[in-house]
Amino acid sequence: MLVQKFDKFLQSVDLKSYRDQYRPIKIVEMDMPKEVQAINMLYKVYWDQKKFLSFEDFYKEYLNSLKTEIESFRQRTTMCKDCFYRGLPARIYRTWASIITQIHAGYVAESVFGEGTIAMSGELDHQGADFQVKYRGKILNYQVKKKSFSGEVRRGKGGVKNKIDGEFIDINYEVPSGDYFENPKKKDGTDKLPYARFMANKELERFPNGFVVFTPYPFEQKKREIDNSLK
């Protein structure tokens, strides 16, 4: 199954190394025009073509495909070449890590709802759906809702939900700091609250390398609800 291949791919990523390398670099932080964003290519490569490239290989493909557009954008920003091309990989990496997590959720959903039920694209993303499910006459527009343990909600597509048909469903993506997994216990031997909350969450699991992904559970619940309503 594709979801199992994607599991192995995500588990093979040296997440700590990437974070150590790119987290401190925040040079290219300005808004990027659509023609140089990586999102369309991410969906094309990892979803349409089923090519599970390492970040380095994806970044090379991104640069080669959009070389002219990227350089034109750099010149418009008047940023020096050295600064821009040191900062760009870090910027693209953050998009890459976020989107491949969403794409994994699409593969998990497909394993539940069935082959051919899932659509995912840059266009759908722009319209407010990280991925769309069509199942037994129902249209489900899933959006990953990134939520910190302080309660802050980060959403990138607010205000665009009226552009496409179907029910919109938020799935919560809550990730405690890695420190909680390395040291989950309080002095009295009980679990620290963020760790305990995460471990009790049936919708998420954490791979040994630190990637947090969605489980089949939220999709199984929705599928069961639809199946029961149509009996």
Describe this structure in words.
This protein has 231 residues and is α+β, with helices and mostly antiparallel strands. The chain has 2 domains: 104 residues, no CATH class; 114 residues, no CATH class. The protein has 10 helices and 7 strands. The strands form 2 sheets. Strands 1, 2, 3, 4 and 5 form a 5-stranded mixed sheet that branches. Strands 6-7 form a two-stranded antiparallel sheet. About 3% of the residues have low confidence.
List keywords for this structure.
231 residues; alpha+beta; 2 domains; 5-stranded mixed beta sheet; 10 helices; 7 strands; 49% helix
> How many structural domains?
2
Poorly predicted tracts of residues: 150-156
Shape: globular
Mean pLDDT: 92
What's the SSE pattern? Answer: HHHHHHEHEEEEHHEEH
Straight-line distance between termini: 29 Å
Helix and strand content put the structural class at alpha+beta
* Tally of DSSP helical segments: 10
- What's the number of extended β-strand segments? 7
- How much helix is in the residues? 40-55%
- Taken as a percent bin, the fraction of beta residues is 5-15%
Radius of gyration: 19 Å
Give the biggest beta sheet: 5 strands, mixed
Outline the secondary-structure elements:
Blueprint: H1 2-11, H2 15-22, H3 39-48, H4 55-65, H5 67-77, H6 81-113, E1 118-119, H7 122-126, E2 131-135, E3 138-147, E4 153-154, E5 167-174, H8 178-182, H9 193-199, E6 204-206, E7 212-214, H10 217-229
Parallel strand pairs: 3-5
Antiparallel strand pairs: 1-2, 2-3, 3-4, 6-7
Helix pairs in contact: 1-6, 3-6
